[in-house]
Amino acid sequence: MIELKQIEKKYKDEVVLHGVNATIIKGEMVFLRGASGSGKTTLLKLLNREIEDYKGEIILDGKVYRNYPKHVIRREVSTIFQSFELLERKTAIENVMLAGEVLGKSKKELKELSLQRLEQVGLLDKQHRFPHELSGGEQQRVAIARALLNQPKVLLADEPTGNLDPETAERIMNLLYAINQEQGITMVIVTHSNELTAQYNTHRTLIMNKGVLSS
Amino acid sequence: MNPMKYYIRDAFQGLKRNGKAFVATVLLIAISLSLMGSFFLIRHSATNVISFLETQVKIKVFVSEDANVKDVNRAISSLDGVASTDIESKEEMLDRMKGFFKGKEYLFEAFQDASFPYTILIEANDEKKVDSIASTVKNLEGVQDIVYPQTFAKEILKWTEIIKQYGTLLLLIFLLLSFLTTQLALSLSVHQRQKEFRLKLILGGKASHVRTQILFEGWIMAFIGSVIASIVVTILDRFALQKLMDKFPFIFQDSPSYLNTILLLLVGIGSIVGILASWLATRGMMKRG
């Protein structure tokens, strides 16, 4: 479970998050919607600890963020990005393996795990392709496989379909939905698309407007 | 399992990818450290020469043509600290010089008509008294000039000090250049691969591990540079200093430990330069986390 208590974030004199309070239940898939500049990406960066300087508390399964080193939290909270963030010089499987390398997993174990994840996202046959040899949707699937490698508790997705055509976007969303349902991973999906949240209206949508969060 | 093996693998890949910057940095470090090593070797040799010259107890006095050599010799013999004196005539001197002109007797003939002053060779009973005897003798009536090894020692010492002063300045400039080049190379590398480093951190990599990878890259460059410098200094020692030692064993003392100390120093300084420069190059990245 993630708890956000009175989160306030300023950039110089500009307040971008005004006392944000929220609770996300374990296994929940939550959309965080808002216009550009509403503060949703800032909130996501707080959750994956790219931003450290804020007021309030973030608690993950009883762990107060501030009391733990970044890497401890980041091993439980994975992130996928709009721009996929794959390393161009590494193949699909090598990109996935990177997530386990930073934890020091053995090569054998890593390879097995990576193949499982690639199979899960339907890219087993393209494991040796470089990112530029994959479509946008396939690149995002590699990024998802990488994010899932270490079995995180939470998956944060920053506009995961922002760079994709509607058809591919739907497939990616279906994949995330399936992972949430099958593995019970808590998901926070940042989007500015009303259509996307309307499609998944069975899930909770948090609206961010000028730094204020509402359900 | 320790993830460092993956980081070290990535460090080597990073160096390979930035081949030209890598070679330039290694060469600059090698040049700076070679200069430093050579400087230490020269200083060591100069110290040997100075020590040798300072142990010499003989003073050569040139007597004026219009003075009576026996009177001058008597005055010198009565001085405190003089163990013995020996007068050398023009004939005796030419006889002694004969050996130098073997095969070039025509040159020797030319010397025979020249006017040479009488010389008196003084031997002091204590090397510490050579300086005071020389200054007293210099002021004696009938003395044209004096020559003694300790004057050379002073001259060498003077030059050694000058070399030390400007050499140290030059070395510091070169070290600074190596440092800045390493930092620049690493900064470029960090900039080029910031996505990779950022990703490693986002995926849960420890900041200390990511930084160690870059520090390792910097150290490798500096280490290779210092090994090249050590080879250059060893060659200089073998082909220049050792030959001098063989020729003048009474001047130069063979001390392999000195060379080893220099080599260790070069590797140590190189490593510090590499690690410190890469540490500084990663400061910004670490702050951003």
| Low-confidence blocks of residues of chain A | none
User: How many structural domains of chain A?
Assistant: 2
- N-to-C SSE series of chain A? EEEHEEHEHHHEHEHEE
**Portion in beta strands of chain B:** 5-15%
- Order of strands across the widest beta sheet of chain A? 6-7-8-3-9-10
The largest β sheet of chain A comes out as: 6 strands, mixed
Kindly state the percentage of residues in helix of chain A: 25-40%
Biggest sheet record of chain B = 4 strands, antiparallel
Number of structurally distinct domains of chain B = 2
Question: What is the tally of helical segments of chain B?
Answer: 11
Strand elements of chain B, count: 4
Shape of chain B: elongated
Q: Helix content range of the residues of chain B, please? A: over 70%
Give the SSE map.
The complex is a heterodimer of chains A (215) and B (289).
Chain A: E1 2-11, E2 14-24, E3 29-34, H1 40-47, E4 55-60, E5 63-64, H2 70-74, E6 77-80, H3 92-101, H4 107-120, H5 136-148, E7 154-158, H6 166-183, E8 186-191, H7 194-199, E9 204-209, E10 212-214
Parallel strand pairs in A: 3-8, 3-9, 6-7, 7-8
Antiparallel strand pairs in A: 1-2, 1-4, 4-5, 9-10
Chain B: H1 4-17, H2 19-54, E1 58-63, H3 69-77, E2 82-88, H4 90-97, H5 105-112, E3 119-124, H6 130-138, E4 143-147, H7 149-192, H8 194-202, H9 207-247, H10 256-281, H11 283-288
Antiparallel strand pairs in B: 1-3, 1-4, 2-3
Give a concise summary.
The complex is a heterodimer of chains A (215) and B (289). Chain A is built from seven helices and ten strands. With 215 residues, chain A is α/β, with parallel strands linked by helices.
